[in-house]
User: What shape does this take?
Amino acid sequence: MPTLLQISVRFLLDEFDGRGDGGEPEWPPSPLRLFQTLTNSAARLGMGAYVPALERLEKLPPPTVVASKPTAIQPRYGFKTFVPNNVGDLVAKSWSSGRDNDIASYRAAKEIRPTRLPENAIVAYLWELTDEPPPEFPDQIRQLARAISAFGWGVNLVVADADLIEAPPATAPGSDTEKWFPAEGGIAPLRVPVSGTLAALEHRHQAFLARLPTAPDGSQFFRPVPPLERFRVLTYRRASDPIRPPFAIFALRQLDDSGFRAFDPVRRGLHVAAMLRHVAGGADIARSLGWNDAQIARLVHGHTEEASTNPSPTRLLFLPLPSIEPRGEGRAHVVGAIRRVLVTTHGPMPRDEFQRLAQRLDGLELIDEKDGKPAALLSRLPDSDKLTKENYLATSSTWATVTPVILPGYDDPRKLRQRLRENSGLTAEEKNALVAKLDQRIDQLLRKALRQAGYSDSIAHHAAIEWRGSGYLPGTDIASHYMTGDQHRRYRKLHVRIQFRDEHGQPLPMSGPLCIGGGKFSGTGLFAAVT
Assistant: This one.
C-alpha cells in the first residue's frame, strides 16, 4: 500500500472567499493555492531551510482532494464594498515627483460573495509518494502547514496540519465530504504546481520588490510585475460526476455576418441539427480527419451495427441552443430563438481529434435541405460564452427542459389509458391505481434516459424527477408541439424538471451539458440550469 502525504486544512468560520482564474467561486481550493500558502509559511519561517521540501512537493503527481460539501457554491447573499484601487505604485510615483495625489480618490467596487461552508469544514490534499522521502521531509511540511493561519482571503481563518498516512480516508472526521481526483473531462478546473513553480514564485516576488526602479537621472518609473505562469490547470471530478466531454460552441450568423441568424426551436430545431450533421459528415471534413465511411456513419449519423452489442457507442451530439435572455420589466429569463449550437460527444473521443473537427466547422455554411441554399454561417465562439456557460454548461442541482424529452420507450404498453377512457365502471381506487402505474412507467423511462446519457445508477436512482406537458421555463411551448424525427413520433414527449440528490437527500450539483431521451443527439431533451 503506497504512503500518502496528507495536508489537511480546517476552517474556523463557515466561509471561503477564494476565486479561480476567471473570478468564479473556487471549490475545492486548488492545490496551487495550498502550495502558495506553504511558500508563504516558508518565507516567514526562513525560506532556505524549506526549499528542498517545497521543490520535492511540486514534483509530486497532482493530489487527490477530499473536501467538505459546500452549503452553496454560487451563493445568493453577499454585499458590495468600495475599496482603494490597486494603484498604490502609481500614487507613490506621483509623490516621488513632487505631485499631490490622494489615494483615497481611487476606489473600485468589490463584490463580497463567499462560498458558504458547513460548520467545521475541512479540505485535505493527498499526494502519493512515488519513493521513500528523506526523513526530514514530512517534518518540514508539517512545520509549514502548522504555520498557516489563513487560506483563501486573509479573513478565511484556518488551522492546518500534515502527516504521512498509509491509506486515504474515505471521509474526513466529522464532515460530510466528497473526494475529488484529477481526470480528463472533469468539472472543476484547478491549478496545480509543477516543477519550477517555487522558482517562479521567488522570481515574481523579486520583481515585486523591484517594481519601482530608479533611472540613471534619479527619477523612478513603474515596472509591471509579471503574472505567475509556471503551473498547469487540471480538471477534477468526483466519482459521481459524469465526465464532461469536449465541446465547441458556434454562433449561427447571417451569411454576410451582419448579425445572428435565428431559428424557431419548436419547428426548426430539428432542421438546424440536421444541417449541422450534414456539414459535419461532408467528404472534405471526413478526409481531413482521416474518417472512413464507417466512421462517418457511426460518429455523425449513428448508423452502425455496433449498437447491437454496445448500446452507447461514441457519437457526436449536435445541440441547437435556444437563447435564454432577460425580458420585460421584471427581467424574467425567457426561452427564445436558436442563435447558437453546441457540438459535443456521447462516449469517448480524443480531444485533439474533436478540436480538429471544431476547427474544420468554423466558418462553414449550413445548407437548407429543402431548397439546397445556404441558411446560416457557423462562427466559433469561446468556451466562456456567457449565455451558454450560464445556462447550458453551468453547475446546478436543478435542471429543466428547454426542449421536451422523448421517452426511450412506450409509456403505456398495457394500454392503461384506454382502459381508463372506456371503462366507466372502475372505482376511484382502481382509477388511482392505474394512474399510479402510468406515472411509475414514465418515472422508470426517465431514469432509464439518464442512465443512457451516461449518468450512474446512483444518480438516476436518487434524482427527484417531475414532468408535465407544459414547460417549466417561460417561453417554452407545449411538449407535443415540438418537431421530432420519424423514428421518435410514436413515443411521448414531456417537459421535465430534475433535482439531483445524493444518497442522503442533499442537493447534488451537476454540470452541463444535459440532454437525455430518444432525441438527445439532435438537441431534443435539452436542459438548462435553474438557479
The two ends are 43 Å apart (CA to CA). The CA atoms of residues 204 and 226 lie 7 Å apart.
